[in-house]
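Um, can you check?
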Amino acid sequence: MDEIVKHINDTNASYRPLGAGDAKNTDLFLDNEHYQLFEGAGEHITVRYHKENLAKAILFIASILPRKFDQSSVHCVVPYSKDFVINQLSLLDALFVEDGKNVETITQEWNARKDVPQKNGKIDTRFYFNGLLKDVIYRDATGKEQKGKFTIRNYFAGGYSELRIKKADDGIFDIEITNVNTPLTNTILCQRNIDSEIIRLFATTDIFQAKPIHVFIIDTSDLG
């Protein structure tokens, strides 16, 4: 096994359906059979993110807003806005910097947890990763400096996303997020245009070809 695919449900996602209860989980839970890919790698593994992939993932999330957002003690409904797009892409710009230079990939260390003894003497047989959070300082849509937190969970949409993890030849685990294009059933769709100037400012033209992007969002106002 050199690659796994995990369908992301609400347990692993920061962006969840409207009406979902508050969730404080900050870990990433995989299936027990996925442990085979990481067996022998030790308690700490190094993963690699690709900026282009995360930019696509957050723009997909923008396309299905509003969503419930849960991250540790933060619980709120996030509506669509141009500021959301600007802020999220700006955070990625700040994150993907090494030695003062912009880079296209970065790495992060995750802590692998499996068969962990509990206080009650039982063994937690679940397989999961923690240590996913990273502080990021970026400038928001108004140019003001903000403190944010990066976690892979912020790029998952529950019910839409799949996480692919592949072990590269250098021993690092490459992260890729894909999303289904078919909206959930019994939803009402409207079309939204994300301003091309925003895309030009904060993302590569290779991804978006510097032209307006039409994406679908869920309009929940008429749903029963």
Residues 3-187 form one domain. Residues 2 and 14 are 27 Å apart (CA to CA). Residues 82-95 form the longest helix (14 residues).
